[in-house]
Design a protein that fits this description.
Blueprint: H1 2-11, H2 15-27, E1 34-35, E2 41-42, E3 80-82, E4 89-91, H3 92-96, E5 98-100, H4 101-117, H5 125-142, H6 192-198, H7 213-224, H8 234-244, H9 248-262, E6 266-268, E7 350-353, E8 360-362, E9 372-376, E10 387-393, E11 399-400, E12 406-410, E13 416-418, E14 422-423, E15 429-437, E16 445-452, E17 458-461, E18 468-469, E19 480-485, E20 488-489, E21 494-500, E22 515-516, E23 522-523, E24 525-530, E25 536-538, E26 549-557, E27 562-569
Helix pairs in contact: 1-2, 2-9, 4-5, 4-7, 5-9
Length: 574
């Protein structure tokens, strides 16, 4: 270790970088590496850091194993090594800075898409590269086809609770081929239950494939950018990384690669990337694919011979000629292994509502009530430390606070989990929020939420100028009104405007003033009108036919606000 620390102090540009590297290096010292059936090195589940911002999800990866190799520490004269492809000497640093072409393209395209869809996130593609390095060694050194799909699936170990987290199957083996337990899948190592809602189509082929690096990189970018995070703020970036895999050692390792890639990278051909060799439960230098030692059964101990005794089967002098062998003592029996206690999730029998209020909100506003459920055992006792997933379902643009349609919350000491506040979008009508227990196939709870249209209860004209016109002419002033609701500005409220026959007859008039449609044709009713952010609605120009007299224009809004405006058509004074 002394040599490693010496390199750290020499190569790190700042004390902070050195500290991160040391922390990450220390994280790779745990014993016991394993491999999956595809030869991918994997490790035991890292200990969670307890970060409050992870939401209790267990991360996108289910806190699966990861590679702990650190980036090389550049020195003025890096020791050269021969490239296996060309035999050309290259420095270790140069080789590690190479990212397979298709994989690198996927990271950069994901960054570009997030820059457009979530500009406030400030996602750097180097962060995706750092996570991709730690999770899969850049898709096993870039073993992908032209569309970005890995030549064979990248699978983590079974999350069966044996040295790893326990996550029972959630996808019937659709993504990971395992109908009993979930396994992390693909270049960015998503567990199936997370991919089901977080998956994205990054290469435009109409599919969301966790084994496609374009799809996986875009999904990882959106996952990191949840909760309106700004990744240019270090604390928020840290929270995002911990949300991906809840381990302080993982955070330090990813930050080390992020810093390294930010100093410079280059493209290498697909399939020629440098593969990691250490995992989060291996010791430095351990083989990435160790064989499992055979288990031998200890033989029963033999009875030691005593001086002056004969061998078994030989009669003693004066023994009456007995030839019975000396009996051996019974082999010591191994103590029966104690049964593994069930996890809290395994003890959950059902979900119960926990006094959720009425879920109604006006478009664009937050719901006053929050959804709360209680995880209970068969004895109807609350079960703590259980992950409950809340999913918004239906044709709606409503979200949870932070803009997400899925939220995972851990039950508290009473077994209760409360979803984040719901925020209504512009689409009105009903939608469903479903609560389910993560890691169990249990019936969920469905809640109906309703978004009502924005309303106005008052309309006034913004001007008191008389609206007059000569026959066959056009009105000089346009009608402009302002809507309010309970004294506050009523923005984005739907409205209609109709030229009516009389105050007592609200049917459309067949003579007098009129509007024009896009083709210049006469119309006397306008629909699909909406007030602006300030509650103001300015109607199109009005024209007059040959009829003279006083005419009425009526404006109505959702919520019952009504305003009737007089329009006068008279011949010009001679």
């Amino acid at each position: 270790m002394a040599a490693h620390f010496g390199r750290l102090r020499k190569g790190a540009t700042t004390t902070a970088v050195a500290a991160v590297a040391v922390a990450a290096l220390s994280a790779s010292q745990a014993p016991g590496v394993t491999t999956d059936d595809l030869g991918r090195q994997s490790a035991g589940a890292a200990q969670p850091s307890g970060d409050a911002n992870t939401g209790g999800e267990g991360g996108a990866t289910g806190d699966s194993p990861y590679y702990t190799d650190l980036p090389p520490l550049k020195s003025p004269n890096p020791s050269p090594s021969a490239s296996p492809a060309t035999g050309t000497p290259v420095s270790v640093g140069e080789a590690e800075a190479g990212i397979p072409a298709t994989v690198l393209d996927a990271y950069k395209k994901a960054e570009a898409e997030l820059r457009a869809s979530k500009p406030g996130c400030n996602l750097p593609w180097q962060l995706l590269a750092a996570i991709g390095k730690v999770e899969s060694g850049q898709a096993r050194g870039g073993r992908v086809d032209a569309s970005g799909t890995t030549y064979s699936p990248i699978l983590g170990p079974k999350l069966d609770g044996n040295g790893f987290a326990l996550i029972a199957d959630t996808d019937n083996g659709a993504y990971d081929g395992d109908p009993a337990y979930d396994r992390a899948v693909g270049p960015m190592q998503f567990i199936p239950s997370t991919w089901a809602w977080a998956g994205r189509d990054g290469n435009g082929d109409g599919k969301k494939d966790p084994n496609n690096v374009y799809d996986a990189a875009l999904a990882a970018g959106h996952y990191l950018c949840r909760f309106d995070r700004d990744l240019s703020v270090q604390s928020q970036m840290n929270a995002a990384i911990l949300n991906y895999n809840n381990s302080t050692a993982y955070l330090n390792t990813v930050l080390s690669w992020l810093e390294y890639y930010r100093k410079g990278t280059h493209e290498v051909p697909d399939g020629t990337g440098t593969l990691p060799s250490n995992s989060s439960n291996s010791h430095p230098g351990a083989s990435p694919s160790p064989s499992t030692p055979a288990t031998s059964t200890p033989s029963a101990p033999s009875t030691p011979s005593t001086p002056g005794t004969s061998k078994p089967g030989t009669p003693k002098p004066g023994s009456g000629g007995s030839t019975s062998p000396t009996p051996k003592p019974p082999a010591p029996s191994s103590p029966a292994p104690s049964p593994t206690p069930p996890t809290p999730t395994q003890t959950v029998d059902h979900l119960e509502d926990a006094n959720t209020g009425k879920l109604t909100a006006t478009a664009g506003s937050a719901f006053g009530a929050k959804i709360a459920v209680r995880a209970e055992s068969k004895a109807s006792k609350g079960v703590a430390k259980v992950r409950v997933r809340f999913t918004i379902i239906g044709d709606t643009d409503a979200t949870f606070t932070g803009g997400e349609s899925v939220a995972t919350v851990v039950t508290g000491s009473t077994g209760t989990a409360t979803a984040p506040a719901l925020v209504a979008g512009e689409k009105t009508g009903d939608f469903t929020v479903r609560a389910t227990v993560v890691g169990r196939v249990l019936g969920g709870l469905d809640y109906t939420a309703t978004v009502t249209p924005r309303q106005a209860d008052t309309l006034i004209r913004t001007s008191d100028t008389a609206l007059t016109c000569v026959p066959g002419g056009e009105f000089a002033d346009q009608v402009e009104v302002k809507a309010t609701y309970k004294g506050a500005v009523a923005g984005k409220v739907a409205a209609t405007a109709t030229l009516i026959k009389s105050a007592d007859d609200a049917t459309e008039n067949d003579k007098g003033p009129y509007f024009k449609d896009a083709d210049g044709k006469t119309i006397r009713t306008l629909t699909d009108l909406t007030t602006d952010e300030d509650g103001v609605l300015k109607l199109p120009k009005l024209y007059a036919d040959d009829a003279t007299g006083t005419f009425l224009l009526r404006v109505n809004t959702t919520g019952g606000a009504v305003l009737t405006v007089e329009l006068k058509v008279a011949a010009a004074a001679s």
